[in-house]
Sequence to fold (502 residues):
Amino acid sequence: MPEILLPRLSDFVAAQMGLHFPMERWRDLERGIHSAARDFGFTDAEACIQWLLASPLTRSQVEVLASHLTVGETYFFREKRTFALLEEHILPELIRSRRGMNQHLRIWSAGCASGEEPYSIAILLQKLIPDVERWNITILATDINPRFLQKASQGIYADWSFRDTPLWVREGYFKKTEECRFRILPSIQKMVSFSHLNLAEDAYPSLCNNTNAMDVIFCRNVLMYFAAEWQKQVVDNFHRSLVEGGWLLVSPVETSHVLFPQFVPVNFPSAILYRKDGDKAPSLDVFPSYVHEEPTPWLPPIAFPVPESEPTPAIFPEFSDSLPVPVGESPKEDVQVSPYQEALTLYQLGRYSGAAENLALWLSQNQNDNHAMELLARVYANLGQLAEALEWCGRAIAADKVNVGCHYLRAMILQEQGAVEEATKSLQRTLYLDSKFVLAHFGLGNLALRQGKAKEAEKHLENALSLLRAFRQEDTLPESEGITAGRLMEIIRSTVYREALA
Fold:
């Protein structure tokens, strides 16, 4: 292969997908493109590269390349030290703080590959919580590769997925099939929801794709594939996706002094974890024997260069300068920043507790400001305080009964609470007010899928696809917090594809 093609391909893949292939990894890139060429219909890898370089990648091309340029192989309870800390410290603290009140947990496996990681988390939760059926538990598992997601959703594994895995896992949570493979128990399988998500391009946190208010995020052996600027953006998004006191778990080789400045590093004897600190975070004193300062990694970290900081993009576009100025606020005020403006800035930075305090102050003086009420509902949703989120969403609706966005927001909050029937009614109300509201059709389709109503789901998803054709691919959808029409179209098609193969 001509030497000039690999550096060009490396730069192209970094720009289009965020994947980083420095010179020392060009052989990996070459092997990956030879494999991908066959999927693209080429017998010659050079011709495939020239074809790819000729124009920007489509979503489907990104997915094909990702499946060949990243490693999706994993196994159950990989990196035992991390799971030991999860079992002995992190989950017991969360369970203890939530028991008897709002019994919920939200965990995200980002880059879940073929599903061993999220299923390991589900097994651990069932082991730790005797009355797990009384809890509202979300285990979100996402990946860029629809083939991985299809395999994961089937829940069938070979012996290779149990290498270096405790024997009790396979014996207690799987049934052997006639083909000498192992199918995960339905009680574990139903705890995990799989979804397509591109960490480098998709919008998160968002109620739309359920990536908000996470207690724990697993993102292990994923960041190492990204170029520096994408690493920083992904970590920033994870920080906003976590509740105060939430945990980010990366692999030992991804620990870094510079990549996680907004997190508090917690140096356990066997691993380094990262915590989102905040006013509402549980006390770190529950780990008295561990050091909560910048640690020396127990393995040499990857040297992640961090570019100069850029303005944080808004993840709450509905409350931008283009909207009407909130009640009681002068549009010409440019000296004194109002509590509302401070709250909006804090929300965008993922500092939700501070945003809630500023909004409470603002609303004490501007009680009829439905924009502030809606923002406060979103703040509480991202804090995981769903009862408060629902209350303020209801107040916003009472102040403006035809606010389509508020009805959709209410549906997303109800869905997180597990109130499927009420969520469905709110989505139907949304469509009554605006029959062309794409995300409501998408939401109804997802709810129908969860209830096993395949025909009904197909109808709603087809309606969403039909409406999306009126948008340009790059158009941001209303109330989506950054999701584009083209991206949602790909998500729907991927969902339909997985269901057809199920």
Q: What stands out?
A: The CA atoms of residues 104 and 487 lie 30 Å apart. The longest strand covers residues 136-143. Confidence is low (pLDDT under 50) at residues 279-325. Strands lie at 104-110, 136-143, 156-157, 174-176, 182-184, 192-196, 214-218, 242-249, 264-267, 272-275.
